[in-house]
Amino acid sequence: MKFYLVSLYRNLVAGARLALFMRVRPHDYRVSPVDFTVLVAFNFAILVGTAAMQAGLEGEFNVAALPAYLASVPLVLAAAMVIAAIYRLYDRLLLVATALTASESVFEVVGLAVPWLALTSGVPRAVVFTLLGWVWLISVRAVVVCMGIKRPQVLIGALVVTAMVSLAYSHPWSVDVWQLPPEEDEPAPLAEEHTFHIQGQLIEQALDGVAKGREGVRELFFVGFAPDASQDVFVKEMRYVKKLFDERFGTAGHSIALVNSQDALEEFPIASVTNLSRALERVAQAMNGDEDTLFLFLSAHGYPDHRLSAVQPPLELASLTPTALSRLLHEAGIKWRVIVVSACYSGGFIEPLKDANSIVITASAPDRTSFGCEAGRDFTYFGQAYFRDALADTRSFTRAFEAARAGVQKMETAEGLDPPSDPQMWVGAAIAERLKKAADAPE
Question: Is residue 340 assigned to a domain?
Fold first, then answer.
């Protein structure tokens, strides 16, 4: 036993040196069927330990993870066998398998920091891809150390390693190693009597708070609609945008926001299509039709058929479609409109909404996704670029779009997001002429 523990130590040291790009030689590894088995067992123990630490040591080991993990061992052995055959060095098969396995515990330990890095960096995909790139590079280095750099064998070996890593991180038999304890069933906040009954008061207060526009003065009115409570980025973004328009664009007393959020049920009225219809009707009554402009901001997840997601447990809410929104605006009789839709596939809103009196701005093309809905963010990518950054430098909604489009492209290029979201804008002829005279801003 002592002999095999010493051999395990030697393999772990060699694996760490390989992973850290330090000098390592083939004879630094201890190679035998038993040594390889002990190494696999140790790596699995490290995998369980790191998973438990990530869960805060709450929960229990998932026994189904053991056969799932062992299913990946033949993948490593198969890759090693192919590489040994390519080099015609069949006696080094187990050496290659050991080298490919010895650095795994280093990757697992470093992986503990990935959730924190993904959250704090603001570019979670880049963090994950960097870790995968490191694993791939070290796997290729293992082949070079064990078998040499003879061409074309080393190039083919790199392709074999690429296939191995791709399968290892996408295999269908993967299961969670550590199971969190089941959450206690708690009633949705909206199911609580006080929260439920206060909703009627919130919408009435919000509607009553929309003051009549002044005759002879062009003013801006704001309506916000964020119907998805599944992620807090939408309520955070709506809070910021409403405050921005109230303070910078003078919509205080002329604004209303409808938001679905488990944490803001006593702050905003529910974002239902019914409430949106009521809000648009009330705003239309307060506006001076030929003078005032509505700025309508919608933020949610979007579907390929261009519906906006509607989530507010335990309610079952109807999704807002582009044609339904067009009908609501037509029924309200609001003439001048600036509409911004921040959602995936939001470009599908342009065709049903465009007319001579409207500007329609969307975070993506009709067939593209937008980005930035990750947990912990304060803005979507488009919301950050348009509302936080661009409108801080200009009061022009159209010039802000051009700046935001460039900003979004820069963020997506930096993270290698493809295809890009491709934000869109429609400017009707009549409102374009009006904005020329008004310097593209409310007076």
Answer: yes
